[in-house]
Amino acid sequence: MSLEEIAGVAHHPTGAPAGAVVLTHGAGGDRDSALLQRVCDEWASRGWLAVRYNLPYRRRRPKGPPSNSAATDQQGVAEAIRWAHSVTDGPVIAGGHSYGGRMTSMVVAGRNPEAMPRLAALTLFSYPVHPPGKPERTRTDHLRAITVPTVFTHGSSDPFGSLDEVRAAAALIPARTEVVAVAGARHDLGSRDIDVAAAAVTAALQLVA
């Protein structure tokens, strides 16, 4: 497995990396989203190799949302994690924005130790607790099977889940968790007041310290 095969773009630190981070995108986006670029730049500035990569559905077509592609997208996540372990002897962190974070969390929840090494942490941006306007359709049951430290970075105005709902979701995970609240931010986590990338990376590093 190579960087090209996972459709990844690498952000390199100065010097030998402390570890590797692989992050993927939301349902309507791709690896070039502004959020992923900022977060990967931040990880590289802290001495980590950071890679933003496209999920398999996005590799097949440049536009549009995923359609019946969860199984292959999760395979793509697992491949990215295995690739990260192949390029570093240090810790590996994985995650993503919205749909990409959900797919990553599902891979981690169903982890097969023989097929995929353990992560040091999971980092989820704008986790879609439920579809907008449908709080009864929660997407959180699998979180109970996650046993690695997890960071949720979430906007207070995100229609995919309130901060209280995200905190309740985090409480399902039987490992250390942290919720980075971004006041006023919506699903894209845009903020004029908070350096979202710095806050998310700092929280993740504290969990793996």
Task: Write up what this structure looks like.
With 209 residues, the protein is α/β, with parallel strands linked by helices. The protein has one domain (6-206): Rossmann fold (3-Layer(aba) Sandwich), CATH 3.40.50.1820. It contains 6 helices and 7 strands, in the order ββαβααβαββαβα. The chain has helices at 34-45, 56-60, 70-87, 99-109, 163-170, 196-208, and strands at residues 8-11, 20-24, 49-53, 92-97, 121-125, 150-155, 177-182. A 7-stranded mixed sheet has the order 1-3-2-4-5-6-7, sandwiched between helices. This is KANL3/Tex30 alpha/beta hydrolase-like domain-containing protein.
Outline of the structure:
It contains six helices and seven strands; from the N terminus they run ββαβααβαββαβα. By secondary structure, the protein is α/β, with parallel strands linked by helices.
SSE map:
Elements: E1 8-11, E2 20-24, H1 34-45, E3 49-53, H2 56-60, H3 70-87, E4 92-97, H4 99-109, E5 121-125, E6 150-155, H5 163-170, E7 177-182, H6 196-208
Parallel strand pairs: 2-3, 2-4, 4-5, 5-6, 6-7
Antiparallel strand pairs: 1-3
Q: What are the main properties of this structure?
A:
7-stranded mixed beta sheet, 209 residues, alpha/beta, 7 strands, Rossmann fold, 32% helix
Question: Count of helices?
Answer: 6
Q: Kindly state the number of beta strands.
A: 7
Give the rounded overall mean pLDDT.
95
Strand order of the largest sheet: 1-3-2-4-5-6-7
Rounded to an integer, what's the Rg over CA atoms?
Answer: 15 Å
Tell me roughly what share of residues is in helical segments.
25-40%
Strand coverage percent: 15-25%
Euclidean distance between termini CA atoms: 29 Å
CATH topology label: Rossmann fold
CATH C-level name: Alpha Beta
Q: Give a short account of the largest sheet.
A: 7 strands, mixed
Low-confidence runs of at least 5 consecutive residues: none
| CATH architecture heading | 3-Layer(aba) Sandwich
Write down the secondary-structure element order. Answer: EEHEHHEHEEHEH
What number of structural domains do the residues give? 1
